[in-house]
Amino acid sequence: MRALKVRYLESRLCAGGRTAYYYNPKSDLRAAGIVERQPLGDDLGRAVAKAEELNRIVDEWRAATRRGEELKHDRKKPGSIADLFDRYQRSAYFTDRAEKTQGDYRKCMRALEDTVLKNGARFGDMPAAKLEHRHVDSLYELLRKKHGLAYANAMIRVARRAFGLGIRWKLVKQNPFSKPSLKELPARQVVWTAAEMQAFIDSANAAGKPSIGLLMRLAYELAQRLVDVRALSWDIYADGLFVFEQTKTGTRMQLPASDALVIELEGLVRAPGKPLAPCETTGRAWGASHLTHAARDIMRAAGLPDSLRLSDMRRTSLTHLGAAGASDDEMMSMSGHLTRSMLTRYSRATAEKARNALKKRDAWRAENAKKSK
User: Fold this and answer.
1) How far apart are CA 202 and CA 206, in angstroms?
2) Which of 43, 216, 222, 263 has CA atoms 20 to 30 A from the CA of 82?
3) Dihedral sign computed on CA atoms, order 186, 345, 302, 217
4) pLDDT digits 0-9 by tens, 227-249
5) Can you list the positions of beta strands (E) in the chain?
6) pLDDT tens readout for residues 14-33
7) What average pLDDT does the chain have?
8) Could you give the CA distance from residue 255 to residue 258 in angstroms, rounded to a whole number?
9) CB contact at 8 A, 304 and 199
10) For residue 320, which of 310, 335, 302 has the smallest C-alpha distance?
11) What is the pLDDT of residue 232?
C-alpha cells in the first residue's frame, strides 16, 4: 500500500489498474476499539472525507487520554443495529443471564458491529429496521470466512435474540436472523480412555505441574466444564462435598467427591480462599489460554493423540456414567443439565447398557424372590 497525505489513508493498485483506498490505523487505536481497518472504496474524494472523519474521532480520544479522561467513542446511531444491541445489553433479558454468558454475548455483538461489509460500511451503523434476510445471508458468508463457522454461528444466534426483542419493542418489524441456514459443525465425540488419562497425569507430574493433573481429575470426577473446575476453591469444599454455582448456567451444584478424590484432596494443604489446583508459577487459578497451552505440552510429552483435549473430560465423565448404567436423573444431578434432551449425546442405546439393565432386573428379581420366601 502507498500512504497518502491524509493520516492512515493508503492506496492499493488493484487488478485492471483500478486504485482502491483503505483506512489503516495503528494497532493501539484498534485495540482500544476507537477505529478499525476498513476499505473506503475507489473514489478518492469520498475516501479522504471518511478518513478525515475517522481521524477526528482519533484526535478526540487522544486528547481525552492526555487529560486523564476516559473517552469512549459512541458509534451507536439512533435506530442503528448497534443501538438495538445496546438496548438489549441494558435490558433484563440480558442482565439476568449468567456473567459468563453476558461476556460471550457482548463479544459477539461487538464483533458484529465492527464487521466491515463489502461496500465499506460498518454493520453496526446500518439501520436495524431496514435489514433483510438477504443481507444476513451475505453477512453470514462474510463472518464464516473471517471468524470460522462456530463463531459465525454464535454471532448469528445472539443477533437473533436481540432482533427478536426489537420486534417486541417495536423497533423493527421483522427478524432477519430468524431463519438463517446455519451450517453446523459435527458434534465432538472424543472420549478419553482410562490409560490416556493416567498417562496425562503421570506426564503432568513429571513436568512439575501436578495441578493440571488434579484439574483433569476434578473435571472427570465432577463432570464439570473446565471454566468451573479452574475456579474451584477450598471455600466450596467441605466434608467430601462441593457446593458451587455453574458459571454458564448459574445452576447450584452439590456434588459429593468420590472416595479416591477425597483421599487425594486430604493430602493437599488446605488454603482458604485459594484455588484447589493453583498454577505452580503464579499461585492463582489457571487462565484458560495458559492452561490450554500447558496441557498441550503435557499431552505431547506423554505421546497422546493430538485429537484429545482437556475439555473432553466432561464428555468423557458423562459417557462413562451412561455406559455404567446411570439414569438420566442421576446424570443430570452430576452435570447440571436442565433437560433430558441435552443428555442424548452421552446416553445412547448400547449393548453394554442393555446388559447392565438385564443385570439390574435380575438382581431385583432375585431380591424379591428372597423376600417372598
Assistant:
1) 6
2) 43
3) positive
4) 999 999 999 999 999 999 998 87
5) 2-3, 9-13, 19-23, 38-39, 237-238, 241-245, 252-256
6) 877 888 888 898 888 876 66
7) 86
8) 9
9) yes
10) 335
11) 95
CA quadruple 96, 125, 22, 53: dihedral positive or negative?
A: negative
Helix (H, G, I), strand (E, B) or coil at 3: strand
- Written as nine digits, the cell of 274 is 485459594
The residues, ordered by sequence, that sit 6+ positions from 332 with a Cβ below 8 Å of its Cβ are: 338, 340, 343
Using alpha carbons, select from 258, 270, 267, 208 the residue that is nearest to residue 234. 270
Task: Report DSSP letters for 255-286, one per residue.
Answer: EEPPHHHHHHHHTSPP-TTSBSS--TTTSSPP
Phi-psi region of 245 (alpha: psi -120 to 50; beta: other; left: phi over 0): beta
DSSP states along 107-130: HHHHHHHTPBPTTS-BGGGSBGGG
Sign of the CA dihedral 270, 271, 276, 282? negative
**Quick one: 364 exposed, middle or buried, by C-beta within 10 A (0-12, 13-18, 19+)?**
exposed
- Number of other CB atoms surrounding residue 181 within 10 Å: 6
